[in-house]
Amino acid sequence: MQYDPIKRRLGHLFTRRPLTRRLFYRLLDILLLRSWHIHNALRAFGRMRQNQETHVLDAGSGFGQYTWYMARKNPRWHITGIDIKKEEVEACNAFIHKTGKKNVRFVQGDLRNVLSPGSYDLILSVDVMEHIEEDEQVFSNFFHSLKPGGMLLVSTPSDQGGSDVQNDDDTSFIEEHVRDGYAIEEINNKLAEAGFRQIETKYTYGKPGSIAWRISMKFPITMLGMSNAFLLLLPFYYLLTMPLVLLLNLADLRGVHRSGTGLMVSAWKE
Fold first, then answer.
1. What does the pLDDT average to over 239-250?
2. Fewer CB under 10 Å: which end of the chain, C or N?
3. Which distant-in-sequence residues (6+ apart) come within 8 Å of 243 by Cβ?
């Protein structure tokens, strides 16, 4: 199915005005399990920084929800969101201008060509690398763009059912992916080849998270792909399902998973 057009349609519906964009961000924070894992990792990184001036690249910023989260929680962080889509960059900059945030900017760019030597303390890449064929070049750009001691934080599908691909005969639920997911050994090796030495990789979306994803994301998006009329039923659907989804998300965040459809990777530049 074509996931990206549905995502754009929902984004355009909810992000036209600052108030509805803030609401949209909040809903994504609650619904998306990856947001739970990313926020947890960002809080840990923030504790290590101890309110120091911090320069951050949100690499593939999309709707800008993670840039907004970091800017709101960390006034001393200076965040650049970069995305290949001009319309997303313009919309995010317009929103930031209206909110009066001074520590954020969005720019258009292609991560395959972006290189800012020694500029960032943190690079965040959320659901981006599975869209880029030339991933080794991008990992190298990330490494060289970090300051010594800087960290790369990556969230991406794994090869254990990422993109809802369970066997060789399945097609990706999200057809825009150039790969269905990474094996831990594969992504660790590519990061090591780029120059990273301290690499920590763990599975996300274990059994509880995979169930939550199907309830909170796959089923609603599939129904929206069939008919826009389902949009009217979404509030009632989530009212019924959210207590279970929240419990499953919490179990996934707190658990240690031997397998999972997602990966969280932290890699440090020495």
1. 96
2. C
3. none
